[in-house]
Amino acid sequence: MNEIKSKQNYKTVSLSPFINKSSTFTTFLWIFVALIPQLIMLFVTKSFANLTIIGVCVAACLLSETFTFIEKKHIKLSILISVLHGVLIGFFLPANYPPLAVFFITLIVKFLMKYAFRETYSSWLNPVILAVITCWFIGQINFPGFQITKDYLAAKNPSLVLIQEGIFPTFRFDEGITTFLNDSTFSLFGVSIPQGYVSLLWDTGAVIPAFRFNLLTILASVFLLVMDVFPVQIPMLFLSVYLVLVKYLVPVFTGGLALHGDMILAMLSSGTLFTSFFMLQWFGTTPMTKKGKVFYAVLGGIYAFIFSGCGTSPIGSVITILFLNLSSPIIQYFENKSNRLRISNALRNENA
Length: 352
Known about the structure:
Elements: H1 2-8, H2 25-44, H3 48-64, H4 66-71, H5 75-91, H6 99-117, H7 127-138, H8 150-153, H9 158-164, H10 173-184, H11 197-202, H12 214-226, H13 233-254, H14 263-268, H15 272-278, H16 290-308, H17 316-351
């Protein structure tokens, strides 16, 4: 009898199989706060087209919550989640995407997600990712292409070639900071970094905001970790697997120098860091057990290598998260099966 009751406590896989009790108003507020510096930088760099796209996405997401506001159910949380979804969708869209098209695509996707899966933030299909993917399929021409070619990959450091050719911008402060770091730190190890990498870390100049401010993304991730919003294990394992695959396998497939896949380019382009810390562990999309989380992170690194390759992919990071969302229910199925088996064995031993 106890065994039957214990088994009934486990949910089967459904359209919304995961529940994360930490996804409260405060949690979402911390995520929004972590994004504010990047929004400010978009204003400082006069990226008004990007800010327009973000504003349009926020408006569409808020409109999708109209019935929630009318019914007066969880209004504060619904408003914050809608604003956050809108900001994140806008961060993954290029500045030249038609705002009107963005508005209607976001509104329709968000509306369908909300009323098909009910609570969007506990659904295994992240509405941010689904909206961006839909925009890409409908208006792929508005997205940039890969900035790296096979000729670049033949070089030892493709990222440096892209910097030298002006594809990635170099700022005036770069030379002074680079010289200081080389003299004070890297010289101790007998190495030096060339001019341009500091600029690459600061602002890649991409038309997609999520790809731009890597240093701010790193600082935001530290803030989220300190505030205990997301654990560090999954993004670190994800990045490790992805970068190792880039280092060792990219030269094999491209004919580049052996063991010299450009990990810096892979990490600082394609929105890799932004995706790792803001989207990879979105509430309701990650497995619950340690083994499940490890498998999830490793699988994510493999997906990232497949879809983003060696970097500069306009949509690879988003597709990576989509495939992880689709893989999560399968992982959870085996987690539940393992838990049921463990409890069944424990009860059998107890009654023996």
